[in-house]
Structure formats: structure tokens, C-alpha cells
């Protein structure tokens, strides 16, 4: 029914359908179930070339008039058009706190396209970057609460101001090996879901695999290979626990958003930054720094990244569309995890940065 439109189903179209379904016989009558709709054998016959004359409708005879068939088909088409018009469609906006040049941008675009495909176009989601509509990264929950966007990409590191309980994820340096992320992912996600629903009336029906390398690096305007080399430098960190750890070690640290980091390094607001290797490559950090050093396993993959939606919006989505959205999310998760485990993102980012003159 969704493939029909009353606008295009005019009389000519119905006539075409009629010709396919009920081809004419020798006398121009429609053939029904292998028989002509004209008179039966034994009834009045016509000489060749003699025009048909309407026959009276007799009991047991199958006399089908064109007008009746056209009227019936028209009614079917109109009913189909009514079903299509009544089918609910959703056009949402997704608030993305990350800058345009982020390793996950392409994956997000592909995921939203997959959702549209899987739902047959019933769920269409437009991605908007928060900085492009006058908001900061830390506003991602406010944007949803104020109904600026129906959906948001939840990144826990950015919401310490509005939701400190949700920002309390495993800090950088808490893991010994990258695979330790999967020991904490489930419990952190369940905790985040409870707080989101209780404090923000928001649900997280889908998770998202952040694209990035297994390790964080320290990028700098000059080589930094030790804790001693960090001291005396102005260093940027992206999360509060990591910030406090550096400060406890005697390092002058501050938080700066990704969108502002390039300019901060270029102008000397900071001398170095804790950053992702893939982010550094994507955001052309080779233009404002000379070097990078491996720092610690990135704990982001055990953090509860995901898509958050206000409860009242999610309640309006039919179950079939919900499932299609969640299936698309899980397919993206599997793809992202496979790439991450293989170290593909790290290797490609390192190769790119070195080709652009950065030193490891």
C-alpha cells in the first residue's frame, strides 16, 4: 500500500491495470476466469463485425461491466492511498556535541542513512552539530530537555556541569590494557540509563561505538616523553578526573573542547594536550604540534556512549521502527568493534600523522 499514491493513480493507470488483469476477448469483452464476459454458448450469437449489445443480467451468468471493475479498482487504490497517508513518519534532529572533523562523523552519517533504509523512510534523522546552532558540548542534555533536538549523542565526559553523576566514568589511566574496557562497559551503561531516566526523563535505547584508537596520546608543540617534561607546560585534558590527576601530579591542566583545541594550541593557550590519535589525524593537529607520545589506554570504549531521547518522544515511536533503529545501531557497533580490535584506526592515523611530519 505504501507504494501507491492516489495522485498518480488516475483513470489511465486504472485502465492499464484492468487490461492486464482482464484482457479483452474477440468481441471486446473482458475475460473472467478463462471465460469471456459476453454471452454463454447457447445464448444469442452475433455475426462477425456485428456490435455487441448489452445483455440482461441473468442468474448464474458472469456479466462484468467495465464501469464496475473501474469503480472497484478505484476504491482499492483510494483505500491504499489512505493507508499510505495515514502511516506515521518521523523527522528528527540528532544533536552531535563533537566537531565536524571527528573520526566518528562518517560512521554517524552512515548509521543515520541505515536507519532511514531499515525503516523504509519512516524515520529520518538529520545530524546537527551543537556548535553550529549556538550550543556548547556540555549543553547536550539541555538541548534535548528544551526540545531543540529529539535525539542527542551522549558523551559522558562533556556533562560534568549539568550531570556530574553521569560524568563519573572510569578516568584515563584506570585501565592497564585496552580490552579492559569490556569489563566495565555494561555496568557503566546500565548506571547511566538509570540516572538519565530518573534525573532527565531521558532514555538511551541505542548504543554507539565511538571511533578512535585504542590509546590516548599527548600531542605537543615540542617533544614530551616524561612526567618531568609535562611540568611547566600548560596541558589540556578532556575529562575532569584526568584533569584532577594531572593537577595532583603538579601539572597545570585545564579542559578545552575539541572544537577549540586547534586554535588553543596554535595561539599558545596550551602547550600540549591529551587527545586521541585518530582525532589528531582527523583534525590536522600536525599543523600546530610537532610530536605525539603514547599515553594510556583510552577508557572511552567502556564509557556509555549512545543515543539519548526524551521519554515522551520515544514513546511515540512504533515498535517496528524502534527495532529497526536498534538493529542498525547494533550492526554499527559490531563493525566499529571489529575495526578497533584490529587496530586499523590507530595504524592509519599514525601513518597519516607521520607522513605529515609529526614525530612519535
Report the sheet with the most strands, covering strand number, pairing sense and barrel closure.
5 strands, mixed
**Which whole number gives the mean pLDDT?**
81
Q: Going across the biggest sheet, name each strand in turn.
A: 4-3-5-12-6
Radius of gyration: 32 Å
What does the secondary structure layout of this molecule look like, with pairings?
Layout: H1 11-21, E1 31-32, E2 35-36, H2 66-86, E3 90-96, H3 105-118, E4 123-129, H4 140-145, E5 151-154, H5 164-167, H6 181-200, E6 202-207, E7 215-220, H7 227-230, E8 234-237, H8 240-248, E9 252-255, H9 258-267, E10 272-276, H10 277-282, E11 291-297, E12 306-310, H11 311-315, H12 319-341, H13 344-355
Parallel strand pairs: 3-4, 3-5, 8-9, 8-10
Antiparallel strand pairs: 1-2, 5-12, 6-12, 7-10, 7-11
Briefly say what this structure is:
Helices cover 40% and strands 16% of the residues. By secondary structure, it is of the alpha/beta class. It has a 5-stranded mixed β-sheet. The chain has a 5-stranded mixed β-sheet with strand order 9-8-10-7-11. The protein has a two-stranded antiparallel ribbon with strand order 1-2.
Provide an overview of this structure.
There is one protein chain. The protein has 360 residues and is an alpha/beta fold. The chain is built from 13 helices and twelve strands. The strands form three sheets. A five-stranded mixed β-sheet has the order 4-3-5-12-6. Strands 9-8-10-7-11 form a five-stranded mixed β-sheet. The protein has a two-stranded antiparallel ribbon with strand order 1-2. Helix 1 crosses helix 2 and helix 3 (105-118) packs antiparallel against helix 12 (319-341). The two termini are 60 Å apart.
